[in-house]
Amino acid sequence: MALRGLAQFKAVATTHAPSDSEPLIRQTGAPAQPLSRVFAYQSYFDNTLLSRAILPQNTNDPIVASTMKREQIPGYSLGLHPSSQTPVAVQFTLGGQTTSSQAIVLSPGQIVRPHGLPRNVQDGSFSGFTWGLPFGWLGGGLATLIVFPSADADASWQGRPEILFHRQRIQIEDLAALPANADKNWPLRFPWEEAVSGSASSLQQGSPVIAVEPTRTILRLRLGTLAAAADMRIIYQETQDFDLDSAGAVIATPVTAYDVTWGTWASVGAGNLGTQYQMLSLQDQGWRLGADLGGVTFASSAASLIDQYVDVCRYGKL
Length: 318
Hints:
The chain is mainly β. The protein contains one helix and 20 strands. The strands form six sheets. It has a four-stranded antiparallel β-sheet, with no helix packed on it. The protein is elongated. Mean pLDDT is 85; it is low at 17-28.
């Protein structure tokens, strides 16, 4: 093949003979195209809303309306680059047709080709797509889509990145006056069945389509000074791991708990750096648990901690 190609090249170069050879690498209509966007986190910290501090999402939209974007970019497959910090939902367009009512959720590192070769269609490509955050997702961050233009385009991506999937603020209760039940505040599956946005009139319930494997949980005590070390009890109610019976029904009691210790602390500095909050990473225990139908209560017998707030960041893999 190489000799024949070289002979053809010499013939064309010396005699102006026409060439019928083809390039070794087949040409495509366009190179792979990256699309990057940064999405707002859908859960946030708030002293009043606490576990309800999530942005409103319309339950009729498989893609969060405020994040929805339509792309007129053709291709054969889409990949969500593993550096992405959030899953995305995608609806494809074939020719001049409208988008499908069923959105496909892509996790970081996943590649999807939406269809094979439909009847009477020559190339089997899509003509465009709409994308954004999946309904019910409480995270956000950077997402990079790669549009593959040809049928044989491919990529080999490794690993499952750790992403931030939920933020919330929890007030520390008095151990001597615990509420009867924990707040609904500790999901692992999204849409979250107990999600309430802002008030009871704005429910965001839905059937879960995304499951998270938790990897760690980081707490931040919103207290600039702690004169003496103090214990805080973390109480889990109605967890998936411990509190489901053989039929999948929730067992409300007993509950699971363990203690963590906040150390002596004092802020130093001035200006914007004048107040620092102590951070604590949960080890070995509580970060693994999920309670889609239940929740978690933080409590203490230390007067220095009661009624204070703890910011919670939960991380995991899809």
